[in-house]
């Protein structure tokens, strides 16, 4: 049957696929719209499979905090190239990912991707469709959530970095400003844990061994290596765990001292730092 421009435009409006792809799909489906949609979806699946191992170093990171300020979500939706990250369809899809995370309160990324959309199809199906339309890999590379008495979010100006900070024991104090300062600290200083208790055993063991090797190379006595390594480990904690880091805006204070100065007993109980690239 003859495929009209109106038919092609209708399929394009319903799927978002390119004009030529829509015309080709309708031709292959002999004008059957549902069959043409299936063809376009299979095209997206083929691209997703073909590009599964491609690196996704561009994209967008989005955050949202609930109206009562007690829950925060952060998602990172990645693609292969910067131009695609600027495309309206990609940014709209990223916003849909965040909205789905908020509305479903999904426990995991897998649960988030399986969440049904308005048309009954999963979020992953919509990602796959856009891969077929754009022609490169698109993936939700991170999804994190925190809950606390007060959650503060920060988005870096490049759109590729987001932070959530969970604060408890506020004693009724407005901690939004200090929360934002701490979020910016996390963005800049990349702490690996809240405090030393959050550092995994493998990292501790590695740092101790590095400390010993450095001391040994400097000619220190073997009997002193363990003590020297422990001193270096304490320095590592100070530089790499949030509560022990110097506050970037005032080096006379650690983050733990900043919290106590803001409100006695104020605590950071959790944080998430998500970046693309």
UniProtKB/TrEMBL annotation:
Subcellular location field: Cytoplasm
Presence of the UniProt keyword Protein biosynthesis in the record: yes
Keywords: Cytoplasm, Elongation factor, Protein biosynthesis
Signal peptide, first to last residue: none
Entry GO CC: cytoplasm
Coarse class of the protein's main subcellular location: cytoplasm
Matches recorded under SUPFAM superfamilies: Elongation factor Ts (EF-Ts), dimerisation domain, UBA-like
Molecular function, one GO term: translation elongation factor activity
Translation elongation factor EFTs/EF1B dimerisation domain span: 73-277
Top-level lineage group: Bacteria
Family (UniProt): Belongs to the EF-Ts family.
Task of the protein: Associates with the EF-Tu.GDP complex and induces the exchange of GDP to GTP. It remains bound to the aminoacyl-tRNA.EF-Tu.GTP complex up to the GTP hydrolysis stage on the ribosome.
NCBIfam families: tsf
Protein name: Elongation factor Ts
Organism placement in taxonomy: Bacteria, Pseudomonadati, Bacteroidota, Cytophagia, Cytophagales
Gene that this sequence comes from: tsf
């Amino acid at each position: 049957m003859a495929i009209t421009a109106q038919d092609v435009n209708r399929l394009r409006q319903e799927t978002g696929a390119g004009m030529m792809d829509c015309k080709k799909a309708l031709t292959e489906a002999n004008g059957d719209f549902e069959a043409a949609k299936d063809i376009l979806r299979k095209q997206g699946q083929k691209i997703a499979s073909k590009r599964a191992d491609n690196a996704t170093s561009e994209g967008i990171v989005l955050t949202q905090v609930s109206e009562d300020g007690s829950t925060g979500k952060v998602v990172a939706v990645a693609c292969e190239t910067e131009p695609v990250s600027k495309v309206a369809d990609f940014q709209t899809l990223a916003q849909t990912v965040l909205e789905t995370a908020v509305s479903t309160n999904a426990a995991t990324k897998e649960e988030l991707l399986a969440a049904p959309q308005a048309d009954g199809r999963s979020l992953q199906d919509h990602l796959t469709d856009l891969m077929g339309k754009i022609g490169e890999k698109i993936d939700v590379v991170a999804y994190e959530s925190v809950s606390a008495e007060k959650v503060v979010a920060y988005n870096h100006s490049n759109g590729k970095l987001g932070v959530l900070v969970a604060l408890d024991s506020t004693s009724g104090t407005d901690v939004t400003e200090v929360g934002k300062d701490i979020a910016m600290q996390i963005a800049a200083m990349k702490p690996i844990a809240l405090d030393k208790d959050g550092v995994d055993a493998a990292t501790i063991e590695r740092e101790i061994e590095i400390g010993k090797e450095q001391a040994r190379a400097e000619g220190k006595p073997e009997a002193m290596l363990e003590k020297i390594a422990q001193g270096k480990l304490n320095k590592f904690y100070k530089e790499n765990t949030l509560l022990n880091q110097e506050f970037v805006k005032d080096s006379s204070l650690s983050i733990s001292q900043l919290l106590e100065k803001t409100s006695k007993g104020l605590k950071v109980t959790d944080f998430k730092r998500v970046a693309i690239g």
